[in-house]
Amino acid sequence: MNYTTQMDAAKKRIVTKEMIRVAAKEEMDVNLLMERVAQGAIAIPANKNHISLDPTGVGLGLSTKINVNLGVSEDCCDVEQEICKVQKAIDMKADAIMDLSCFGKTREFRRRLIEMSPAMIGTVPMYDAVGFLDKELKNITAEEFLSVVEKHAQDGVDFMTIHAGLNKETAAKVKQEKRLTNIVSRGGSLLFAWMELNKSENPFFAYYDQVLDICAKYDVTLSLGDACRPGSIHDATDAAQIHELIVLGHLTKRAWAKNVQVMIEGPGHMAINEIAGNVMLQKRLCHGAPFYVLGPLVTDVAPGYDHITSAIGGAMAAAAGADFLCYVTPAEHLRLPNLEDMKEGIIAARIAAHAGDIAKGVKGARDWDNEMSQARADIDFNKMIKLAIDPEKARAYRESSVPEQEDTCTMCGKMCAMKTMNKILQGEELDI
Protein backbone atom coordinates (compact mmCIF):
# COMPACT_ATOMS: atom_id res chain seq x y z
CA MET A 1 0.00 0.00 0.00
CA ASN A 2 1.51 3.30 -1.12
CA TYR A 3 -0.71 5.54 1.02
CA THR A 4 -1.73 5.86 4.67
CA THR A 5 -5.22 7.37 4.44
CA GLN A 6 -7.85 8.15 1.82
CA MET A 7 -6.66 11.78 1.89
CA ASP A 8 -3.05 10.73 1.45
CA ALA A 9 -4.02 8.57 -1.54
CA ALA A 10 -6.05 11.40 -3.08
CA LYS A 11 -3.17 13.86 -2.73
CA LYS A 12 -0.95 11.31 -4.51
CA ARG A 13 -3.66 10.88 -7.19
CA ILE A 14 -4.18 7.24 -6.26
CA VAL A 15 -7.77 6.07 -6.82
CA THR A 16 -8.66 3.68 -4.00
CA LYS A 17 -11.31 0.97 -4.10
CA GLU A 18 -13.26 3.05 -1.57
CA MET A 19 -13.25 6.05 -3.92
CA ILE A 20 -14.44 3.84 -6.80
CA ARG A 21 -17.33 2.53 -4.70
CA VAL A 22 -18.39 5.98 -3.46
CA ALA A 23 -18.18 7.49 -6.96
CA ALA A 24 -20.39 4.70 -8.31
CA LYS A 25 -23.00 5.15 -5.57
CA GLU A 26 -23.07 8.92 -6.04
CA GLU A 27 -22.83 8.93 -9.86
CA MET A 28 -19.83 11.26 -9.59
CA ASP A 29 -16.71 11.19 -11.73
CA VAL A 30 -14.09 9.39 -9.64
CA ASN A 31 -11.39 11.95 -10.49
CA LEU A 32 -13.59 14.80 -9.24
CA LEU A 33 -14.27 12.79 -6.09
CA MET A 34 -10.55 12.20 -5.62
CA GLU A 35 -9.80 15.93 -5.98
CA ARG A 36 -12.39 16.80 -3.33
CA VAL A 37 -11.03 14.17 -0.94
CA ALA A 38 -7.56 15.68 -1.43
CA GLN A 39 -8.96 19.15 -0.67
CA GLY A 40 -10.84 17.94 2.42
CA ALA A 41 -14.24 18.87 0.96
CA ILE A 42 -15.24 15.19 0.95
CA ALA A 43 -14.42 12.60 3.61
CA ILE A 44 -14.63 8.83 3.17
CA PRO A 45 -14.60 7.42 6.72
CA ALA A 46 -13.10 3.95 6.22
CA ASN A 47 -11.01 2.43 9.00
CA LYS A 48 -8.56 -0.14 7.66
CA ASN A 49 -9.87 -2.64 10.24
CA HIS A 50 -13.59 -2.29 9.36
CA ILE A 51 -13.68 -5.28 7.03
CA SER A 52 -17.49 -5.33 6.55
CA LEU A 53 -17.69 -1.67 5.51
CA ASP A 54 -19.50 -0.52 2.38
CA PRO A 55 -17.71 2.85 1.99
CA THR A 56 -19.74 6.06 2.03
CA GLY A 57 -18.70 9.61 1.21
CA VAL A 58 -19.70 12.76 3.07
CA GLY A 59 -19.30 16.23 1.62
CA LEU A 60 -19.45 18.54 -1.36
CA GLY A 61 -21.72 17.40 -4.20
CA LEU A 62 -22.74 14.16 -2.48
CA SER A 63 -26.14 13.18 -1.14
CA THR A 64 -26.83 14.24 2.45
CA LYS A 65 -26.09 11.38 4.83
CA ILE A 66 -27.83 10.43 8.09
CA ASN A 67 -26.48 8.99 11.32
CA VAL A 68 -28.25 6.87 13.94
CA ASN A 69 -27.20 6.99 17.59
CA LEU A 70 -27.54 3.94 19.84
CA GLY A 71 -25.68 2.13 22.62
CA VAL A 72 -26.02 0.83 26.15
CA SER A 73 -26.29 2.97 29.27
CA GLU A 74 -26.40 2.14 32.97
CA ASP A 75 -30.19 2.42 33.15
CA CYS A 76 -30.78 0.59 29.84
CA CYS A 77 -28.07 -2.01 29.38
CA ASP A 78 -29.81 -4.60 27.19
CA VAL A 79 -27.10 -5.39 24.66
CA GLU A 80 -29.32 -7.64 22.52
CA GLN A 81 -31.94 -4.90 22.23
CA GLU A 82 -29.24 -2.53 20.96
CA ILE A 83 -28.11 -5.16 18.45
CA CYS A 84 -31.73 -5.34 17.22
CA LYS A 85 -31.58 -1.56 16.75
CA VAL A 86 -28.37 -1.93 14.78
CA GLN A 87 -30.00 -4.38 12.37
CA LYS A 88 -33.06 -2.13 12.03
CA ALA A 89 -30.86 0.88 11.27
CA ILE A 90 -29.02 -1.10 8.59
CA ASP A 91 -32.31 -2.33 7.11
CA MET A 92 -33.61 1.25 7.00
CA LYS A 93 -30.53 2.41 5.06
CA ALA A 94 -28.84 4.52 7.72
CA ASP A 95 -25.50 5.75 6.38
CA ALA A 96 -23.77 5.71 9.76
CA ILE A 97 -24.24 4.33 13.25
CA MET A 98 -22.72 5.97 16.31
CA ASP A 99 -22.12 3.78 19.33
CA LEU A 100 -22.60 6.04 22.35
CA SER A 101 -22.27 3.23 24.91
CA CYS A 102 -21.08 4.37 28.31
CA PHE A 103 -21.68 1.33 30.54
CA GLY A 104 -20.82 -2.34 30.75
CA LYS A 105 -18.82 -4.36 28.22
CA THR A 106 -18.57 -1.53 25.73
CA ARG A 107 -15.74 -3.02 23.72
CA GLU A 108 -17.55 -6.32 23.23
CA PHE A 109 -20.62 -4.49 21.93
CA ARG A 110 -18.52 -2.19 19.72
CA ARG A 111 -16.75 -5.15 18.10
CA ARG A 112 -20.04 -6.93 17.37
CA LEU A 113 -21.42 -3.71 15.88
CA ILE A 114 -18.41 -3.19 13.61
CA GLU A 115 -18.38 -6.82 12.50
CA MET A 116 -22.04 -6.78 11.40
CA SER A 117 -22.37 -3.26 10.00
CA PRO A 118 -21.72 -2.25 6.38
CA ALA A 119 -22.55 1.32 7.49
CA MET A 120 -19.71 3.48 8.80
CA ILE A 121 -19.32 3.42 12.58
CA GLY A 122 -18.63 6.38 14.85
CA THR A 123 -17.88 6.62 18.56
CA VAL A 124 -17.10 9.19 21.25
CA PRO A 125 -14.12 7.76 23.19
CA MET A 126 -14.73 10.28 25.99
CA TYR A 127 -18.02 8.50 26.83
CA ASP A 128 -16.21 5.21 27.17
CA ALA A 129 -13.22 6.39 29.21
CA VAL A 130 -14.70 6.33 32.71
CA GLY A 131 -16.21 2.86 32.40
CA PHE A 132 -13.41 1.29 30.37
CA LEU A 133 -10.66 2.58 32.63
CA ASP A 134 -12.77 2.04 35.79
CA LYS A 135 -11.56 5.33 37.27
CA GLU A 136 -13.13 8.54 38.47
CA LEU A 137 -13.07 11.28 35.83
CA LYS A 138 -10.66 13.51 37.75
CA ASN A 139 -8.06 10.74 38.03
CA ILE A 140 -7.86 9.86 34.34
CA THR A 141 -4.60 10.99 32.74
CA ALA A 142 -4.10 12.44 29.29
CA GLU A 143 -2.22 9.29 28.29
CA GLU A 144 -5.15 7.15 29.39
CA PHE A 145 -7.60 9.20 27.32
CA LEU A 146 -5.36 8.63 24.30
CA SER A 147 -5.21 4.91 25.03
CA VAL A 148 -9.00 4.71 24.77
CA VAL A 149 -8.86 6.54 21.43
CA GLU A 150 -6.33 3.97 20.19
CA LYS A 151 -8.51 1.05 21.36
CA HIS A 152 -11.47 2.40 19.38
CA ALA A 153 -9.26 2.86 16.32
CA GLN A 154 -7.88 -0.68 16.63
CA ASP A 155 -11.41 -2.07 16.77
CA GLY A 156 -12.28 -0.54 13.40
CA VAL A 157 -14.18 2.67 14.21
CA ASP A 158 -14.45 4.80 11.07
CA PHE A 159 -14.93 8.22 12.67
CA MET A 160 -14.53 9.54 16.20
CA THR A 161 -15.98 12.58 17.88
CA ILE A 162 -13.12 14.36 19.63
CA HIS A 163 -13.93 17.61 21.44
CA ALA A 164 -10.53 19.19 20.85
CA GLY A 165 -11.93 22.71 20.31
CA LEU A 166 -12.91 23.15 23.96
CA ASN A 167 -9.61 24.65 25.07
CA LYS A 168 -9.07 26.99 28.02
CA GLU A 169 -10.05 30.05 25.97
CA THR A 170 -13.29 28.43 24.80
CA ALA A 171 -14.09 27.30 28.34
CA ALA A 172 -13.59 30.89 29.54
CA LYS A 173 -16.18 32.04 26.99
CA VAL A 174 -18.67 29.53 28.39
CA LYS A 175 -18.22 30.98 31.87
CA GLN A 176 -18.40 34.58 30.65
CA GLU A 177 -21.50 34.13 28.51
CA LYS A 178 -23.84 32.90 31.28
CA ARG A 179 -25.62 30.56 28.90
CA LEU A 180 -29.15 29.41 29.60
CA THR A 181 -28.21 25.75 29.16
CA ASN A 182 -24.42 25.84 29.71
CA ILE A 183 -22.76 22.87 27.92
CA VAL A 184 -25.23 20.20 26.79
CA SER A 185 -22.72 18.03 24.94
CA ARG A 186 -22.11 14.99 27.14
CA GLY A 187 -18.50 14.67 26.02
CA GLY A 188 -18.01 18.42 26.23
CA SER A 189 -19.39 18.61 29.77
CA LEU A 190 -17.14 15.76 30.93
CA LEU A 191 -14.08 17.45 29.43
CA PHE A 192 -15.05 20.82 30.92
CA ALA A 193 -15.38 19.14 34.32
CA TRP A 194 -12.02 17.38 33.91
CA MET A 195 -10.34 20.67 33.00
CA GLU A 196 -11.86 22.47 35.98
CA LEU A 197 -11.08 19.66 38.42
CA ASN A 198 -7.47 19.35 37.27
CA LYS A 199 -6.86 23.02 36.39
CA SER A 200 -5.40 21.76 33.12
CA GLU A 201 -5.75 22.20 29.39
CA ASN A 202 -8.06 19.88 27.46
CA PRO A 203 -5.90 16.78 26.84
CA PHE A 204 -7.28 16.34 23.32
CA PHE A 205 -6.18 19.90 22.51
CA ALA A 206 -2.86 19.67 24.34
CA TYR A 207 -1.99 16.31 22.73
CA TYR A 208 -3.75 16.88 19.43
CA ASP A 209 -0.76 15.73 17.36
CA GLN A 210 -0.84 12.36 19.11
CA VAL A 211 -4.57 12.06 18.34
CA LEU A 212 -3.79 12.77 14.69
CA ASP A 213 -1.07 10.12 14.65
CA ILE A 214 -3.57 7.52 15.86
CA CYS A 215 -6.13 8.60 13.25
CA ALA A 216 -3.55 8.47 10.46
CA LYS A 217 -2.36 5.00 11.50
CA TYR A 218 -5.82 3.44 11.10
CA ASP A 219 -7.38 5.98 8.70
CA VAL A 220 -9.93 7.18 11.23
CA THR A 221 -11.82 10.30 10.20
CA LEU A 222 -11.77 12.97 12.89
CA SER A 223 -15.22 14.31 13.67
CA LEU A 224 -14.32 17.49 15.51
CA GLY A 225 -16.96 17.75 18.21
CA ASP A 226 -18.94 20.87 19.05
CA ALA A 227 -18.73 20.86 22.85
CA CYS A 228 -20.36 24.29 22.84
CA ARG A 229 -23.25 23.49 20.54
CA PRO A 230 -26.31 25.38 21.73
CA GLY A 231 -28.72 23.37 23.87
CA SER A 232 -31.39 26.03 23.51
CA ILE A 233 -32.32 28.54 20.85
CA HIS A 234 -31.34 31.23 23.39
CA ASP A 235 -27.69 30.11 23.30
CA ALA A 236 -27.34 29.75 19.53
CA THR A 237 -24.59 31.62 17.69
CA ASP A 238 -23.08 32.99 20.90
CA ALA A 239 -19.41 33.74 21.57
CA ALA A 240 -18.62 30.29 22.99
CA GLN A 241 -20.04 28.48 19.96
CA ILE A 242 -18.29 30.73 17.45
CA HIS A 243 -14.99 30.75 19.33
CA GLU A 244 -14.95 26.96 19.33
CA LEU A 245 -15.71 26.96 15.60
CA ILE A 246 -12.71 29.20 14.96
CA VAL A 247 -10.50 26.79 16.94
CA LEU A 248 -11.92 23.86 14.96
CA GLY A 249 -10.92 25.63 11.76
CA HIS A 250 -7.29 25.76 12.93
CA LEU A 251 -7.44 22.11 14.02
CA THR A 252 -8.83 21.12 10.63
CA LYS A 253 -5.78 22.47 8.81
CA ARG A 254 -3.47 20.69 11.24
CA ALA A 255 -5.29 17.42 10.58
CA TRP A 256 -5.16 17.81 6.82
CA ALA A 257 -1.42 18.48 7.04
CA LYS A 258 -1.11 14.95 8.47
CA ASN A 259 -3.55 13.52 5.86
CA VAL A 260 -6.26 12.95 8.45
CA GLN A 261 -9.80 13.42 7.13
CA VAL A 262 -12.07 15.77 9.05
CA MET A 263 -15.75 16.46 9.60
CA ILE A 264 -17.00 19.37 11.70
CA GLU A 265 -19.90 18.90 14.11
CA GLY A 266 -22.47 21.65 14.57
CA PRO A 267 -25.63 22.72 16.40
CA GLY A 268 -27.81 21.86 18.22
CA HIS A 269 -30.84 24.03 19.02
CA MET A 270 -31.21 27.03 16.72
CA ALA A 271 -33.95 29.31 15.39
CA ILE A 272 -34.76 28.77 11.72
CA ASN A 273 -33.49 32.19 10.67
CA GLU A 274 -29.97 31.45 12.02
CA ILE A 275 -29.43 28.07 10.33
CA ALA A 276 -28.23 29.18 6.87
CA GLY A 277 -25.87 31.72 8.42
CA ASN A 278 -24.36 29.08 10.70
CA VAL A 279 -23.75 26.70 7.79
CA MET A 280 -22.06 29.50 5.87
CA LEU A 281 -19.90 30.36 8.90
CA GLN A 282 -18.84 26.75 9.38
CA LYS A 283 -17.94 26.29 5.74
CA ARG A 284 -15.98 29.55 5.76
CA LEU A 285 -14.18 29.15 9.09
CA CYS A 286 -13.46 25.44 8.62
CA HIS A 287 -12.28 25.72 5.02
CA GLY A 288 -15.09 23.75 3.38
CA ALA A 289 -14.79 20.64 5.55
CA PRO A 290 -17.94 18.45 5.61
CA PHE A 291 -20.49 19.70 8.15
CA TYR A 292 -22.27 17.25 10.48
CA VAL A 293 -25.25 18.66 12.41
CA LEU A 294 -27.43 17.43 15.26
CA GLY A 295 -30.82 18.67 14.11
CA PRO A 296 -30.79 21.62 14.36
CA LEU A 297 -33.87 21.67 16.59
CA VAL A 298 -35.79 24.81 15.69
CA THR A 299 -37.75 25.15 18.93
CA ASP A 300 -37.25 23.98 22.51
CA VAL A 301 -40.88 23.25 23.43
CA ALA A 302 -41.67 19.96 21.70
CA PRO A 303 -40.41 17.02 23.80
CA GLY A 304 -41.99 13.90 22.36
CA TYR A 305 -41.92 15.46 18.88
CA ASP A 306 -38.29 16.50 18.54
CA HIS A 307 -37.87 14.25 15.50
CA ILE A 308 -40.11 16.85 13.82
CA THR A 309 -38.30 19.94 15.15
CA SER A 310 -35.06 18.27 14.07
CA ALA A 311 -36.34 17.36 10.59
CA ILE A 312 -37.39 20.97 9.99
CA GLY A 313 -33.95 22.24 10.99
CA GLY A 314 -32.14 19.40 9.25
CA ALA A 315 -33.85 20.15 5.94
CA MET A 316 -32.95 23.84 6.31
CA ALA A 317 -29.33 22.99 7.16
CA ALA A 318 -28.97 20.48 4.33
CA ALA A 319 -30.45 22.92 1.84
CA ALA A 320 -27.88 25.51 3.00
CA GLY A 321 -25.00 23.07 2.52
CA ALA A 322 -24.78 20.77 5.56
CA ASP A 323 -23.55 17.33 4.53
CA PHE A 324 -24.48 14.96 7.34
CA LEU A 325 -27.50 14.88 9.68
CA CYS A 326 -27.56 13.17 13.05
CA TYR A 327 -31.04 11.82 13.60
CA VAL A 328 -33.17 12.87 16.56
CA THR A 329 -35.97 10.66 17.89
CA PRO A 330 -39.25 11.45 19.67
CA ALA A 331 -37.50 10.34 22.87
CA GLU A 332 -34.89 13.14 22.71
CA HIS A 333 -34.47 14.85 26.12
CA LEU A 334 -36.73 12.21 27.73
CA ARG A 335 -35.27 8.67 27.62
CA LEU A 336 -33.18 6.18 25.68
CA PRO A 337 -35.00 5.62 22.37
CA ASN A 338 -36.70 2.27 21.79
CA LEU A 339 -36.99 0.52 18.43
CA GLU A 340 -40.09 2.44 17.36
CA ASP A 341 -38.55 5.79 18.42
CA MET A 342 -35.49 4.93 16.37
CA LYS A 343 -37.59 4.14 13.30
CA GLU A 344 -39.45 7.47 13.58
CA GLY A 345 -36.15 9.31 13.95
CA ILE A 346 -34.59 7.61 10.92
CA ILE A 347 -37.57 8.37 8.68
CA ALA A 348 -37.66 12.02 9.80
CA ALA A 349 -33.92 12.39 9.15
CA ARG A 350 -34.15 10.71 5.74
CA ILE A 351 -36.98 13.07 4.75
CA ALA A 352 -34.90 16.06 5.85
CA ALA A 353 -31.81 14.81 4.01
CA HIS A 354 -33.74 14.18 0.80
CA ALA A 355 -35.44 17.57 0.98
CA GLY A 356 -32.01 19.14 1.34
CA ASP A 357 -30.67 17.17 -1.63
CA ILE A 358 -33.48 18.50 -3.83
CA ALA A 359 -32.60 22.06 -2.82
CA LYS A 360 -28.86 21.47 -3.34
CA GLY A 361 -29.45 19.98 -6.77
CA VAL A 362 -27.79 16.67 -5.92
CA LYS A 363 -27.68 14.51 -9.04
CA GLY A 364 -30.74 12.27 -9.31
CA ALA A 365 -32.43 13.61 -6.17
CA ARG A 366 -35.57 14.77 -7.99
CA ASP A 367 -35.90 11.55 -9.99
CA TRP A 368 -37.44 9.69 -7.03
CA ASP A 369 -40.04 12.45 -6.52
CA ASN A 370 -40.87 12.57 -10.23
CA GLU A 371 -41.39 8.81 -10.29
CA MET A 372 -43.73 9.06 -7.28
CA SER A 373 -45.65 11.90 -8.92
CA GLN A 374 -46.07 9.84 -12.08
CA ALA A 375 -47.43 6.94 -10.02
CA ARG A 376 -49.94 9.34 -8.42
CA ALA A 377 -50.96 10.68 -11.83
CA ASP A 378 -51.48 7.08 -12.96
CA ILE A 379 -53.40 6.30 -9.73
CA ASP A 380 -51.05 3.34 -9.23
CA PHE A 381 -51.23 2.75 -5.49
CA ASN A 382 -48.98 -0.33 -5.57
CA LYS A 383 -46.19 1.69 -7.17
CA MET A 384 -46.78 4.62 -4.78
CA ILE A 385 -46.34 2.28 -1.81
CA LYS A 386 -43.23 0.71 -3.34
CA LEU A 387 -41.66 4.14 -3.86
CA ALA A 388 -42.60 5.48 -0.40
CA ILE A 389 -39.78 6.34 2.01
CA ASP A 390 -41.56 3.99 4.46
CA PRO A 391 -43.47 1.42 2.35
CA GLU A 392 -44.57 -0.51 5.44
CA LYS A 393 -46.45 2.45 6.90
CA ALA A 394 -47.86 3.53 3.54
CA ARG A 395 -49.25 0.03 2.95
CA ALA A 396 -50.75 -0.13 6.45
CA TYR A 397 -52.58 3.18 5.91
CA ARG A 398 -53.88 2.09 2.52
CA GLU A 399 -55.13 -1.25 3.83
CA SER A 400 -56.72 0.26 6.94
CA SER A 401 -59.34 2.14 4.90
CA VAL A 402 -60.37 0.37 1.68
CA PRO A 403 -62.28 2.47 -0.89
CA GLU A 404 -65.28 1.33 -2.88
CA GLN A 405 -63.28 1.65 -6.09
CA GLU A 406 -59.68 0.45 -6.17
CA ASP A 407 -58.41 3.40 -8.22
CA THR A 408 -59.37 5.94 -5.54
CA CYS A 409 -58.79 6.48 -1.84
CA THR A 410 -61.34 6.97 0.92
CA MET A 411 -60.67 10.70 1.16
CA CYS A 412 -61.90 11.71 -2.32
CA GLY A 413 -63.58 8.60 -3.71
CA LYS A 414 -65.17 9.24 -7.10
CA MET A 415 -64.17 12.91 -6.82
CA CYS A 416 -60.47 12.05 -7.06
CA ALA A 417 -58.74 14.92 -8.86
CA MET A 418 -56.32 12.61 -10.67
CA LYS A 419 -59.13 10.38 -11.90
CA THR A 420 -61.25 13.36 -13.00
CA MET A 421 -58.40 14.95 -14.97
CA ASN A 422 -57.36 11.67 -16.60
CA LYS A 423 -60.91 11.03 -17.82
CA ILE A 424 -61.54 14.58 -19.07
CA LEU A 425 -58.21 14.84 -20.88
CA GLN A 426 -58.79 11.47 -22.52
CA GLY A 427 -62.23 12.59 -23.70
CA GLU A 428 -64.12 10.13 -21.51
CA GLU A 429 -67.46 10.57 -19.77
CA LEU A 430 -67.40 11.60 -16.11
CA ASP A 431 -69.65 9.89 -13.56
CA ILE A 432 -69.33 11.20 -10.02
Spell the H/E element sequence. Answer: HHHEEEHEHEHHEHHHHEHEHEHEHHHHH
| Helix content bin | 40-55%
Per DSSP, the total helix count is 19
CATH homologous superfamily grouping? Radical SAM ThiC family, central domain
Write down the oligomeric state: single chain
Task: Estimate nothing, just give the exact number of structural domains.
Answer: 1
Find the count of extended strands (DSSP E, 2+ residues): 10
CATH structural class: Alpha Beta
Shape: globular
Q: How does this structure look, described?
A:
The protein has 432 residues and is α/β, with parallel strands linked by helices. The chain has a single domain, classed as TIM Barrel (Alpha-Beta Barrel), CATH 3.20.20.540. 51% of the residues lie in helices and 9% in strands. The protein is built from 19 helices and ten strands. The protein has helices at residues 6-11, 17-26, 30-39, 79-91, 106-116, 125-133, 142-155, 168-177, 186-198, 203-206, 208-218, 239-257, 272-285, 306-320, 339-360, 365-377, 381-387, 391-400, 417-425, and strands at 42-43, 58-59, 65-70, 96-99, 120-123, 159-162, 221-224, 262-266, 291-294, 324-326. An eight-stranded parallel barrel has the order 3-4-5-6-7-8-9-10, surrounded by eight helices. Helix 12 (239-257) links the parallel strand 7 and strand 8. The longest helix is centred in the C-terminal third of the chain and has 22 residues, at 339-360. The model has no long low-confidence stretch (mean pLDDT 95).
